[in-house]
Structure formats: structure tokens, C-alpha cells
Amino acid sequence: MASLAEIARTQTELDPDDLAHLQRFIGSWGLVADLCFSDLLLFVPTDADGTHFVVAGQVRPTTNQTLYVRDLLGEIADREERPLIARSWRRGEIIEGEVTDPIIRERVRMLCIPLRYRDRTIAVLSRESTPSVGRAAGELERTYQEIFNRFARMIAAGDFPYAREDGESEENLRVGDGCLVLDGAARVSYASPNAVSALHRIGIHVNTEGLRLGELGLDDEPVRTAYAVAAPVTEEIDPRPGVSVLIRCIPLVDAARVTGAVVLLRDVSEIRRRDRLLLSKDATIREIHHRVKNNLQTISSLLRLQGRRMASDEAKAAIGESVRRISSIALVHDILAREAGEDIPFIEVLRPLVRMVEESLSSPDHEVRFTVTGDPGTLPAGVATPMAVVLNELLQNTMDHAFPADADGGRPAGRVRVEMENDGQELVSRVIDDGVGLPEGFSVERTTGLGLSIVRALVTSDLTGTIDMFEPLDGGSGTEVELRVPLDAERPG
Fold first, then answer.
1. What are residue 385's phi and psi, to 5 degrees?
2. What average pLDDT score do residues 342-367 get?
3. Burial category of 412 from C-beta neighbours within 10 Å (exposed 0-12, middle 13-18, buried 19 and up)
4. Segment 232-243, tens digit of pLDDT
5. Which secondary structure element, helix H or strand E, spans residue 323, and what is its range?
6. Which intervals hold domain Histidine kinase (predicted)?
7. How many Å apart are CA 489 and CA 427, to the nearest integer?
8. In 191-312, where does DSSP find H-type helix?
9. Distance CA 481, CA 402 (A)
10. Could you report the per-residue pLDDT of 424-465, keeping only the tens digit for each?
11. What is the structure's pLDDT at 414?
């Protein structure tokens, strides 16, 4: 579906300032639709003469059912199909009437409001609803319609949308949340039933009529600021411990003077309580990961101490391998202790993992250079932990077997490249070396070595992926190991 910006660029003669003004209007016109219980359509002329108009915006009310089931954005109408729109555009006046709508083929009551900016009409707002027959409006409907009429006059005068806005709130307040209408002295002249209920929930049970918000026990700073600057103000206040209320004060302006305001309010106490619980839970989870990391590091230190007391070189090597495996898991928990949530930017695990293997296994007479290319993206902890162990084993296996010692105990220099790709559906990892290559008849499925057995088990079982080992596709010497791990698969546990 085309956006306002696309429609303006391709079908109208609006300049950037006009477009910005209309975008501000569309950002706040949900309130206007709620107040008039009707669909609102924004018509912009496609030519300077106003012979054709394009629907550049559409909003449905939350206080009533919609008249138009389908979206009308991008629809073109000429002045014969929409005569009231053309007349309002041409005269720059608010015009009301009934016409047969060309889209739904029914009688529609329209109120056409010229939307002015910089002393000229740049669009026409149309309130469209079914004609009312013999039904008396209640107090709420009469009040809202009166407020809508005041907004209509502000739109026609160029006072709405406001030149200064307080920015979008985290929660999008609507009239149905609770609405207070204030007079020119900032006293309550009307409170909707939902507003009364919201006040009751936060412990305010007095009759609000004729009182200011401060006299009700609420912080009236948002109201005083809105009246002073003639622009909307949104703030969250805490009238008492454990109670939070989101307030948005929208001033009503007439001839550059604030004559009243609409105050929307919502009790967000339960939402904030849940937010605090989530923050507390998140902090607890991070602390757990931090303690797990510390415990793993303690185990690694104990194993190193034990390794130093070993007389057997084979035992020392086995303990060294265990230390590196534990350290690779500790890296993941270290990231989880610092990051929010259970997803990890895996590059922050991969780079220190490669550096750890390089520092522990490389030496001046056995210099192997490691490089990392590509972006593994963000991985769930359930994928990141086994992947860290798998890559640690593959890098260690490469150091042990791709660059074997010669008869004099020396080892050749070499290069190892780790490539990562993540398209959102599958993680592809490649470990490529320029060593001696695979032995004759080698098969990863039949290998009995501990390291590759761990890799095979983790990749095929925990990660539900595949592993292949072959000569590099570029024709050089060495070995290429390719891992493919689906990221949306169901995993054990």
C-alpha cells in the first residue's frame, strides 16, 4: 500500500514543507476520528485547478464502526464524484452535505474541512458517516461532537496540527482510554465514563466537575505547560506509590488563545508493574549467567592447577583441551550476562574464541594466522553455546592435524579462515585451512577422534544441522569444513 510520501511525490504538487505538515496531521488525527465517531479521509488535489483529488490518508474511529471496509489510499476522484470536496477546496470553507458515495453506492453525510497551512489550503479533510435518522445523541456523543467541531475550526484556521509537538508517546492514547474536557480556566467541564473509571482505579472518587487536576490529587504540570505553550504535552505521573497515570493534554486554540483542552488519561499501573517485574527477571537472569561464567572460570583454573601437577604429556594435553572447551562455553555466558535477552551477537563470541585458540596453540615455531570473515548475526543462546564448542573443537582439530610436526619437531606456518553467513533461516559456518589436507579414505561419519565426535554429536543432535569435510573448492591444499544449521528448527530440550 502506498504511503502518504509516495502518493505526494508521484501524484501531487505538494512541496516538502506541505508534506511535512500533512504527516504531522496524520500522526495525530486518530483523536479527531474518535471524537466525531466517523471515518476521516484526506483528499489532496493532483493538479493546481483542483479537478482531481487523491485519497492520501484514511483513519477509522475506535469509537464507532467504520463506513469503509476496504482501504481507499491512492483512490482518485474528480470534482463531479466529490463535489463537496472540490467546493471546500475552492472556497477554503467548511462545507457539509449529503451525497451518494461513488464507492459504496450509499448516501453518506460529509463534512469537508479545508486543511490550511501558511495561509493556503493544501488538502481537504472529509468526515464521512451514515446519515443519522431519528436518534437523539447522548451527553458523551454531544460533548465529543462539540469538541470535534472546535478541532474542525482549528484545522480550517491552520492551528491544527500544532507546529510544536511533544513527540510520540510510548503508548498511543485514544479517546476511549478516558477523556476529560477542560474549560479556559483548566477546570473539568466533562469526564467520560472511562475517565471516571480510570480515576476510580487510582483512588479518586470525588465529582470532578469544576475542579482542576491539582485539586483532584493529580500533578497538573502537563496541563499548565500545555496551556502555556499552546501545544500538546504528554507525561507520566505517579499520584501515589504503585500508581502510574499517563496523561496527554491537548489544548484547544481559538484566535491564538487557549480556550480549553482535551485530557486523555490511562491508568498504566499494571503495565509498569509488569515492566518492573520484567526488569527484575532480566537482572536475575543476567546475574545467573554471570555466576555460571564465574563458576566455569573457577573450574578452568582448578583444571589448570591439576594439569601442572601431571607428569604425563598426554594427560596435560587432555586437561588443556577440557579447559578450552569450558572456556568456550564461559564466553557465551559472559555475553549473556551483559546483553539483554537470550539472543547473542555471535561475533562477540567468535572473535575472542578464535583469539583464545590462536594464543593457546600457536607458537613462534608454529605460527598459524587466523582470520574471521562474514557476519554470523544474532543467535539464540541454545544455538550459540553448542556452536561455540563446535568451532573451538574444529579450530583445535585444525591446529593438531592440518599442520603436523616434522621429524625435527618443527611445524609449518599456516592460515586458517573462519567464514560465517546468516540469512535469517540458516547459519553457514566454514573453517578453511591450507594445511596437509584430509587423509586417504577419511570420513567424518566414521571418525573415532574425541574432538570430531563431539562436533558430530553437537551438530547433528543439538543443532539439527549437517557437517561436511572436503578439499577447498578453490583447488588449493588443505581442508574445508562446512556446517549448516537451520535457525528455525525445533531442537531437543
1. -65, -55
2. 78
3. middle
4. 999 888 877 878
5. helix 313-338
6. 287-489
7. 12
8. 193-201, 221-229, 269-308
9. 12
10. 889 999 999 888 888 877 777 777 777 788 888 888 888 899
11. 82
> The sheet that has 257-267: what strands, in order across it?
188-191, 179-182, 257-267, 243-254, 233-240
Type of residue numbered 152: A
Q: How far apart are CA 356 and CA 359, in angstroms?
A: 5
3, amino acid identity: S
Q: Which residues pair with 301 in a beta bridge?
A: none
Same topology for domains 4-157 and 175-267, yes or no? Answer: yes
Overall fold of domain 4-157: Beta-Lactamase (3.30.450)
DSSP string, 404-430: ---TTS----EEEEEEEEE-SSEEEEE
Q: What is the mean pLDDT of the chain?
A: 86
The C-alpha cell 472546535 sits at 150
Which residues have C-beta within 8 Å of that of residue 362, sequence separation ≥ 6?
Answer: 368, 399
Q: 489: which residues sit within 8 A by CB, 6+ positions away?
A: 464
| Cα-based angle 34, 35, 36 (whole degrees, multiple of 5) | 95
Residue spans of the domains in the chain: they are 4-157, 175-267, 270-341, 347-383+390-493
Classify domain 347-383+390-493 at the CATH topology level. Heat Shock Protein 90 (3.30.565)
Nearest CA among 446, 293, 462, 486 for reference residue 390: 462
What the block records as the C-alpha cell of 454 is: 563431539
- Amino acid, single-letter form, for residue 188: V
Contacts of 272 (CB under 8 A, 6+ apart): 244
Read off the amino acid at residue 108.
Answer: V
Amino acid at site 208? T
Angle of helix 313-338 relative to helix 347-361, nearest 10 degrees, comes to 160
Check whether the bond before 161 is cis (ω within 30° of 0): yes
Q: Whole-angstrom Cα distance, residue 292 to residue 275?
A: 26
pTM of the predicted model, to two decimals?
0.61
In one-letter notation, the amino acid at residue 323 is: V
- The residue whose grid cell reads 549448516 is 484
Rounded CA separation 8/163 (Å): 20
Rg (CA), the chain: 34
Per-residue model confidence (pLDDT) at position 366: 64
Tell which phi-psi region holds residue 410, choosing left (phi > 0), alpha (psi between -120 and 50) or beta. Answer: beta
Distance CA 160, CA 231 (A): 10
Q: What is the DSSP letter of 106?
A: S
